[in-house]
Write a structure and sequence with these properties.
Number of strands: 8
Number of helices: 13
Order of helices and strands: HHEEHHEHEHHEHEHHEHEHH
Shape: globular
Strand content: 5-15%
CATH superfamily of the largest domain: SGNH hydrolase
Helix content: 55-70%
CATH class of the largest domain: Alpha Beta
Length: about 350
């Protein structure tokens, strides 16, 4: 028993010595790792020493790994890299977007700098000259001869229609744009009255335009609207229904134009529109469908025919807007409008240019 016990103690002692050597070697390895990586400096101070001199490295699992063999450090690094790549992507996308918008804005500003309203205002009033002739100042001269154009008695212009008038007047300072342009051409004074009604079709306009003009005692009237084109689609109408829609539109427009031109105080009258590109939300103007193109084109032709019939100038806002807007920019509608329909700053400027072109006849 004594010899066997001594052998057992010797083996046990040798095992302890071996374990202690292994722990010391592990400790040296950890020290080397920690010294090579400052990120784990806090791990040195967190090691636990037992009474037998061995060192526990379990606390390193918080840095080196977990029970499932996953590295928290690796997970942290992955998150940091993902965040870094996301920041790079957002920065790049923002930079490209800003660059795109800047170049497009500069390009369209250059196009607008060369813009002329002359091709888009066609006169059918023989008093003002033949179609295609340059303005001769008949409106200015006639107004001045009637004692109009002074501070006390300005030339009153009724701007009738839908949101094409109302929004431009309220949101884009159409009045200021018109006054500024006219001040460079004449000393006569003008007063512009906003009678745009949001969403007003020609039927709605027929009910309010005459009372508005009479209340203003206006000598000049400009009608600009496109709610009929905005609200109409051929795909939800049968051919018979679409034909009835156009017939009703012609009758209402004929009624409006006949009544306006018959008012004794109205000396000059012009119609404009439709000008719609295709209404949609901000920065995502709806693509005009083929049926919408059909409605716009056919109502435009009707407006031209009615202008010829009643011998009044026609202002082609649709073609005027497209003339300074290039389709391959993608968001090209935004340079003239805020949603594909209602005028933005550039669109309102084009509107003012065309109106002044008419007023200088």
């Amino acid at each position: 028993m004594s010899a066997g016990y001594e052998i057992y103690n010797k083996l046990h002692s040798d095992e302890e010595i071996l374990l202690k050597d292994q722990n010391e070697n592990n400790d040296l390895d950890v020290e080397a790792d920690l010294e090579s990586d400052d990120e784990y400096a806090d791990v040195r101070s967190s090691r636990v020493k037992y009474t037998d001199g061995s060192i526990s490295h379990n606390v390193m699992s918080e840095k080196k790994g977990n029970d499932f063999g996953e590295s928290s450090y690796g997970k942290t690094t992955w998150r940091k890299n993902a965040l870094r790549y996301l920041c790079f992507f957002l920065f790049g996308a923002t930079f490209i977007t800003v660059l795109y918008i800047s170049i497009a804005a500069i390009y369209h500003a250059k196009v607008y700098a060369d813009y002329s309203p002359n091709p888009y205002v066609t006169n059918y009033n023989p008093i003002l000259g033949a179609p295609g002739e340059d303005p001769t100042g008949v409106i200015f001269a006639t107004s001045k001869a009637a004692g109009l154009g002074t501070e006390e008695n300005p030339i009153v212009v009724s701007l009738a229609g839908d949101s094409m008038m109302y929004n431009a007047f309220v949101d884009r300072d159409l009045n200021g744009k018109l006054q500024q342009r006219l001040s460079k051409k004449t000393d006569l004074k003008f007063k512009f009255c906003n009678h745009g009604h949001g969403g007003a079709t020609i039927y709605r306009i027929s009910q309010v335009i005459i009372p508005d003009i009479i209340a203003d005692n206006a000598s000049i009237v400009i009608l600009n609207w496109d709610s009929d084109a905005t609200d109409s689609h051929t795909y939800d109408m049968t051919p018979a229904e679409y034909a009835a829609f156009k017939e009703s539109y012609i009758l209402e427009l004929d009624y409006v134009m006949g009544n306006v031109t018959s008012l004794p105080q109205v000396k000059f009258f012009a119609i404009a529109g439709p000008s719609i590109f295709g209404e949609g939300p901000l920065l995502a103007p709806r693509i005009i469908t083929p049926d919408k193109v059909t409605v716009i084109a056919e109502l435009r032709e009707i407006n031209i025919e009615m202008a010829q019939k009643h011998k009044v100038p026609y202002i082609d806002m649709n073609h005027a807007l497209h003339s300074v807007s290039v389709s391959w920019w993608g968001l090209y509608k935004m340079w003239c409008t805020v949603d594909g329909e209602h005028y933005g700053e550039l669109g309102a400027s084009i509107e003012a240019d065309n109106f002044v072109r008419f007023l200088t006849y």
